[in-house]
């Protein structure tokens, strides 16, 4: 989400004279991972929701309610002072109260997940009940915004005929001379090391591949960090996959990593829009992906620019990976088609949709 936001802000700063402010809640004095343009004002409200993540469910709920009250107070003060033309929520906690802030701005809700994101964790007990309750509330919440933006046609279909809904995907960045020739015996996966990205499922599939003893010269590189890092490393060690699987810290030069890989794999349980997928395809990488909600069906043409596997089919996922690993000519064919993603999801096309949306709202 931060990278998508950065790309959008950079485009606005270079193509318009609009003033941009980015408001965060949990920066805790840390600089942004990516460098934003100097003209962008960065403001942190100091709410720090993430500090409650390790507390018990009851304490977590109490802490959340307290922080949410502080969040609303500080954001209201900021917006009443700034008097912006447009305020965009990326669906953190302020989405529930931001339409009620009477600062005169048009309000946009931008969903980077999908309608069912709260339910994908399948949490039990009190937290699970809250997940289901909040999912039901979402259907009423999104109607309160001037515009509700989702990332895929698939997700739009789940929300029904909302009068304010609009589909604007994320953009594939233009590539300058860095393309993979898919000759490298290297597979790449990118994302947070947590439940959503499902890298445990990827490691299960990789273990099946290594049991065949046919692809010992291939390696799997995972780029990311998160609360599952130790667990995933223990899985690698227990399965004795250390020679072929490595976990790396995130890098700001992920394009170089794509260019030196031959296949992207995505094993997520859910997404709003798999940004990594279109980034890697822009570099010429064919994709092997579970058919999770939402995004793969919008982007991948099965057998043409990548391979779609029934969600949760570990053996099928391993077989799809081996199909591409074994056939370089087929990888090249899919690679050629994968690069066409840049025309469908070009930055110019996507950002002109945003510009038209902003203009139409301010004209009203």
Total of helices: 13
Please give the domain count: 2
Q: Unreliable segments (pLDDT under 50, ≥5 consecutive)?
A: none
Task: Summarize the amount of helix as a percent range.
Answer: 40-55%
The average pLDDT score comes to: 92
Named CATH architecture of the largest domain: 3-Layer(aba) Sandwich
**Overall CATH class of the largest domain:** Alpha Beta
The CATH fourth-level homologous superfamily of the largest domain: Glycogen Phosphorylase B
SSE order:
HEEHEEHEHEEHEHEHEHEHEHHHH
What is the CATH T-level topology of the largest domain?
Rossmann fold
Give the biggest beta sheet. 6 strands, parallel
> Which outline best applies?
globular
Proportion in β-strands? 5-15%
Numbering strands along the chain, what is their spatial order in the largest sheet?
9-8-7-10-11-12
Instruction: Give the strand tally.
Output: 12
Structural class: alpha/beta
Distance between the termini: 29 Å
- Radius of gyration, in angstroms, nearest whole number: 21 Å
Describe the protein.
The chain has 364 residues and is of the alpha/beta class. The protein has two domains: 2-171 and 346-363, Glycogen Phosphorylase B (Rossmann fold, 3-Layer(aba) Sandwich), CATH 3.40.50.2000; 186-344, Glycogen Phosphorylase B (Rossmann fold), CATH 3.40.50.2000. Helices cover 41% and strands 14% of the residues. It has 13 helices and twelve strands. Strands 9-8-7-10-11-12 form a six-stranded parallel beta sheet, with helices on both faces. It has a four-stranded parallel beta sheet with strand order 3-4-5-6. Helix 5 (199-211) crosses helix 10 (314-326). The longest helix is centred in the N-terminal third of the chain and has 26 residues, at 57-82. It is globular and about 65 Å long. The two termini are 29 Å apart. The model has no long low-confidence stretch (mean pLDDT 92).
């Amino acid at each position: 989400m931060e990278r998508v936001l950065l790309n959008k802000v950079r485009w606005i700063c270079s193509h318009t004279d609009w003033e941009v402010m980015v408001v965060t809640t949990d920066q805790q004095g840390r600089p942004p991972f990516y460098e934003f343009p100097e003209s962008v004002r960065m403001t942190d409200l100091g709410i720090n929701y993430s500090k409650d993540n390790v507390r018990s469910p009851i304490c977590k709920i109490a802490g959340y309610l307290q922080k949410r009250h502080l969040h609303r107070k500080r954001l209201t003060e900021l917006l009443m002072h700034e008097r912006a033309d447009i305020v965009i929520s990326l669906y953190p906690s302020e989405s529930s109260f931001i339409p009620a802030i009477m600062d005169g701005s048009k309000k946009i809700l931008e969903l980077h997940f999908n309608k069912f994101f709260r339910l994908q964790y399948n949490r039990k007990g009190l937290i699970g009940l809250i997940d289901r309750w909040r999912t039901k509330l979402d259907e009423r919440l999104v109607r309160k915004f001037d515009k509700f933006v989702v990332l895929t046609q698939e997700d739009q279909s789940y929300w029904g005929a909302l009068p304010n809904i609009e589909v604007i995907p994320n953009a594939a960045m233009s590539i300058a001379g860095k393309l993979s020739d898919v000759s490298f015996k290297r597979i790449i996966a990118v994302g947070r090391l947590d439940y959503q990205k499902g890298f445990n499922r990827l490691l299960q599939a990789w273990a099946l591949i290594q049991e065949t003893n046919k692809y010992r010269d291939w390696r799997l590189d995972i780029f990311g960090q998160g609360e599952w890092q130790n667990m995933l490393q223990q899985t690698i060690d227990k399965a004795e996959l250390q020679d072929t699987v490595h976990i790396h810290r995130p890098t700001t030069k992920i394009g170089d990593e794509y260019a030196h890989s031959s296949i992207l794999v995505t094993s997520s349980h859910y997404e709003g829009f798999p940004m990594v997928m279109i980034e890697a395809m822009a570099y010429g990488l064919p994709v092997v992906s579970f058919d999770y909600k939402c995004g793969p069906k919008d982007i991948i043409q099965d057998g043409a620019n990548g391979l779609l596997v029934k969600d949760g089919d570990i053996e099928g996922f391993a077989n799809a990976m081996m199909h591409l690993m074994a056939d370089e000519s087929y990888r090249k064919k899919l690679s050629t088609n994968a690069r066409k993603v840049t025309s469908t999801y070009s930055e110019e096309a996507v950002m002109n949709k945003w510009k038209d949306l902003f203009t139409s709202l301010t004209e009203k």
